[in-house]
Amino acid sequence: MDIREVAVVGSGTMGNGIAHVFALNGFDVLLIDIREEYLKTAVQTIEKNLEGQVKKENITQKQASKTFSRINTSISLEDCREVDFLLEAVNEDLKIMKDVLVLLDKICKPQTIFATNTSSMSITDLATSTSRPEKFIGMHFMNPVPVMKLVELIRGIATSPDTIEQVFDLSRKLQKVPVEVHDFPGFISNRLLMPMINEAIFCLMEGVFSKESIDTVMKLGMAHPMGPLELADFIGLDVCLAIMEVLYSGFKDSKYRPCPVLVNMVAAGFLGCKTGKGFYDCKK
Description:
By secondary structure, this protein is α/β, with parallel strands linked by helices. It has 2 domains: 5-182, NAD(P)-binding Rossmann-like Domain (Rossmann fold, 3-Layer(aba) Sandwich); 190-267, N-(1-d-carboxylethyl)-l-norvaline Dehydrogenase, domain 2 (Orthogonal Bundle), CATH 1.10.1040.50. Helix content is 47%, strand content 14%.
C-alpha cells in the first residue's frame, strides 16, 4: 500500500512533532485532538519550530511554507476515515489509549496501518483493541521529534512482516533511522534510560551529593548532553514515573521500583518543565 495520507491523534509535544516531520517530508497530515485550543497551541508550536529550522538554514522558507500547508486539524475522529496510516500519540494512559483505538478501528478502512508512539506499553496488548493486530506496530519517536534521528519500531506478537517492512520504509522516508525491537516493557530506550534516571534520584535521596554534582558527573564524565535529573525535568516526572511503573509491573523485579522521591514529586504536581518546577526551576 502506498502511504499518502497520515493522521496523528494527539497534538501534544510528541504528536505535533510527529505531524511536523511527516509534513516536512511530503505527507498530507491530519492532526487530531479533543479541543480546538490544544490544536491551536500545537499549530503555533509547529510554526515556531519551522521558523527555527529556517533560521538555522536547515530548510528554506519555501519548504517551511509547504510543510505548514500540508497540515490540517480536526476535533473529530471521523475525519480519519480515509487515511492510509494512523499514529496514536495520546496521553500515556492504557485505558485512554485502548478506548481511542477501539473507536478508530471502527472508523478507519481495513487496510489502514495503525501505529502507536507509546514509550513503554505493550504493543501486543494495545493491538488487541483493534481487529487488525497484524497491521499494528509500535513507532516510538524520540523527543524533540524534528531533531532526533532514532525511531524504535516495536513488533507485537501478531505484527506481520509486511507491516514491519512498510513502516521501516516509511521511517526512512521521514529521514529517521529505524531500529527494530521486540515487545518487552520499555523496549530498549526506556528500559535503559529510565532506570538510570531513577537511580540518579535515589542518589539524590540518599545524599550521595547535590543534584548539580550528579548531573555534572554524567555530563562531563559520561559525555551525556544532559544530566539525568535535568533530563527527567525535560521529559516530565509524571512520564518517568509512569514508565518506571510499567517496568516494575512488567518484570516484577525490585530493581525497577520507582524512587519514593519521584513518587512524591509527581503527587505534589512537581512535574518538571511542563509545570515550571521539578528538580530544577524551569521556565514554562
